[in-house]
UniProtKB/TrEMBL annotation:
Alphabetical list of InterPro entries matching this protein: Bact_solute-bind_prot3, Solute-binding_3/MltF_N
Pfam families with a match to the protein in the record: SBP_bac_3
Organism name: Pelomonas baiyunensis
Highest rank taxon of the organism: Bacteria
Protein name: Amino acid ABC transporter substrate-binding protein
Keyword Iron belongs to the record: no
Keywords: Signal, Transport
Ranges of residues in domain Solute-binding protein family 3/N-terminal: 31-263
Length: 292
């Protein structure tokens, strides 16, 4: 029995010694830094009282609890860090955030700097326009202004499409989704190109929601995932393991229903967005590997 106890202690010490920088920091500090967004409804946004909420935030809190149990900590306090589309990758890459809980696309360019876990949503970029604009497709933006958010894949994609197809669109940047929405509402832009689920979320929070509509075919396909530091296989293994468990146990499905099919704060409006066939198929065999 003494030998068995000694062996267990030795194995535990060995695991701690090779736990990786993120797990070491979490274990020694007793807190985890969760990066969140300001207006990425319903994934990650801030209520009027300053509290971060959303689908991705809830997933990160589930991951936090799993890490607490795995590290055998009495408590693990989440510390929230507000990030923007422009600096979210940098905050994780520099170790200022342990997880980025938002609506970030997993693609090859970003995988050069950070890692991603199992996608929690699959969407695509489309266009938000004023309902009386008559615009229904990309070609109708010829000679008009399209706004998108700085540091996002839809901005890069529309810029590329505009150049390659000679569409003569004036593409402008906004610092965040809320500002881009303001520009569209004020007539400073004719359309707002972004992941369609985010467009639906932004519109749902407005009292004049009927004045806007999402149009057009998908410009991109976007697998959205929680971001974590690159080069820390132990931390990534634990996060991936828990994400797969959340999917296979259907806990993630319940969270999806909570944020996409039921009323959400602060207005109590439901997005009524059933799970897409793309996400259903992907979650049959959940993986961090995406073909993009």
């Amino acid at each position: 029995m003494k030998r068995l106890i000694s062996l267990c202690l030795a194995l535990g010490a060995a695991w701690s010694a090779h736990a990786g920088p993120v797990l070491d920091r979490i274990q020694s500090s007793g807190h985890i830094v969760l990066a969140h967004r300001e207006s990425s409804v319903p994934f990650s946004y801030v209520l009027p009282d300053g509290k971060p909420v959303g689908y991705a935030v809830d997933l990160c809190l589930k991951l936090t609890d799993a890490l607490r149990q795995r590290l055998k900590l009495k408590s693990l306090t989440p510390q929230f860090l507000l990030v923007t589309p422009a600096n979210r990758i940098q905050m994780v890459a520099e170790g200022k955030a342990d997880l980025e809980c938002g609506s970030t696309t997993n693609n090859a360019e970003r995988r050069e700097k950070v890692a991603f876990t199992v996608p929690h949503y699959i969407t695509g970029a489309r266009y938000l326009v004023r309902a009386d604009s008559g615009i229904t497709e990309l070609s109708q933006f010829d000679g008009k202004t399209l706004v998108s958010t700085k540091g996002t894949t839809p901005l890069k994609s529309i810029t590329q499409a505009n150049n390659e197809r000679a569409l003569h669109i004036r593409v402008v940047e906004a610092p965040d989704h809320a500002k881009a929405m303001e520009m569209l509402a004020a007539g400073q832009a004719d359309g707002f190109v972004m992941d369609d689920v985010l467009l639906y979320g932004l519109v749902s929070a407005r009292p004049d929601a009927a004045k806007f509509q999402v149009v057009g075919k998908f410009l991109t396909i976007e697998p959205l995932s929680i971001v974590l530091p690159k080069g820390d296989p132990e931390f990534k293994s634990l996060v991936d393991e828990e994400m797969k468990r959340l999917v296979t146990s259907h806990e993630a499905h319940a969270l999806y229903e909570r944020w996409f099919l039921k009323p959400i704060p602060p207005k109590g409006t439901a997005l009524n967005l059933p799970m897409s066939y793309l996400l259903k198929d992907f979650w049959k065999y959940p993986s961090d590997q995406v073909p993009y």
